[in-house]
Design a protein that fits this description.
The chain contains eleven helices and ten strands. It is an alpha+beta fold. The protein starts with a helix and ends with a helix.
């Protein structure tokens, strides 16, 4: 009898990291989505809805086989027909798959799309972080100009402003292109080689598999080492440097507050050039002609440029054929 009661109690609980969205909270989400959709439409974005389930290999090439999402966080399954599927951990890969599958490259470019819904990552549940989470996203596909990042950042900050959230600040960095990363990787490996014995377990593994992820470490023991690491921005080629400069100039013109974060890498392999995250700005402190920003730790959103993802997607399509 005791075992039966305990079993029934478990059945009446949501799985760990999942939750019900009840009526009052549902209206809260509905208001957020309504405002986000209005602003996205104002900037020229159109809606798209992709499946919650995608082929598992769709996420490997773009997100990176050594990313935390691929190694630890994806919910995967094998169907009775033998297909390997995954609950979508993020939205960009699915949108790009749809762009290629439905021939959107034949439409007037760039293609601007927004999406919303549930996404899934098997990570440690904590305040503001669930294994099933709601997300609204915007993608501008097939546009090389720096105005692309500025539009997405402006739309995102405007959504937050219209919802009464803020003031906010954008933390931003440039990862450069493939060649920039190769040059930087050599400098980063040389620096961390001297401190290898002081690193946490994950960083020792990242040193061998994906050195750029060393900058994404949150372990306290690694912070002093990370603080003095060489910066990627010093390894940018002229094209990437000029592109990033243009992005910052657009943000200045739009009066969007930002700060450079040389350690921001976003942890996904498909990002090139600009990466950014949006945080609450707790207060502005004037210091001469400069502003010192005190920020909260909870990111409200983020993103970046993914110039190589179309190439990765086309390669994947050819492999499946």
């Amino acid at each position: 009898m005791t075992t039966k009661i305990a079993k029934n109690k478990i059945l009446l609980q949501t799985p760990k990291g999942m939750r019900d969205i009840l009526s009052e909270e549902y209206l809260f989400y509905q208001n957020i989505y309504k405002k986000a959709e209005e602003i996205a439409a104002f900037y020229g974005f159109s809606p798209i809805q992709t499946p919650h389930l995608e082929r598992t290999e769709l996420f490997g090439g773009g997100l990176g086989e050594t990313s935390d999402i691929i190694e630890k966080q994806m919910y995967t399954l094998r169907t009775r027909g033998g297909d390997h599927l995954a609950l979508r951990p993020e939205g960009t890969a699915g949108v790009m798959r749809s762009y290629l599958e439905h021939g959107m490259h034949t439409l007037p470019q760039p293609v601007m799309l927004w999406y919303k819904g549930s996404f899934f990552r098997h990570e440690k549940p904590q305040k503001g972080r669930f294994r099933e989470f709601q997300q609204f996203g915007m993608e501008i596909i097939n546009e090389e100009k720096a105005i692309t990042e500025a539009i997405v950042i402006k739309a995102m900050t405007m959504i937050l402003e219209e919802l009464g959230v803020g003031p906010v600040i954008v933390r931003i960095n440039s990862l450069g292109d493939k060649e920039c990363k190769i040059a930087y990787r050599k400098d980063l490996l040389a620096y961390y080689r001297k401190n290898l014995n002081l690193l946490c377990f994950d960083c020792k593994r990242r040193y061998k598999t994906n050195p750029l992820r060393l900058l994404d470490c949150k372990e306290e023991k690694c912070q002093p080492i990370k603080a003095n690491a060489p910066t990627l921005i010093d390894n940018l080629c002229k094209e990437c440097h000029d592109h990033f400069k243009s992005v910052l100039e657009f943000l200045d013109e739009l009066e969007i507050p930002y700060s450079l974060n040389h350690h921001l890498v976003r942890g996904l392999d498909y990002y090139t050039k600009t990466v950014f995250e949006v945080f609450l700005e707790d207060e502005h402190l004037e210091s001469g002609s400069e502003k010192t920003h005190k920020r909260s730790k909870l990111a409200l959103g983020g993103g970046g440029r993914f110039d190589n993802l179309i190439k990765i997607g086309r390669a994947s399509c050819r492999e499946r054929v």
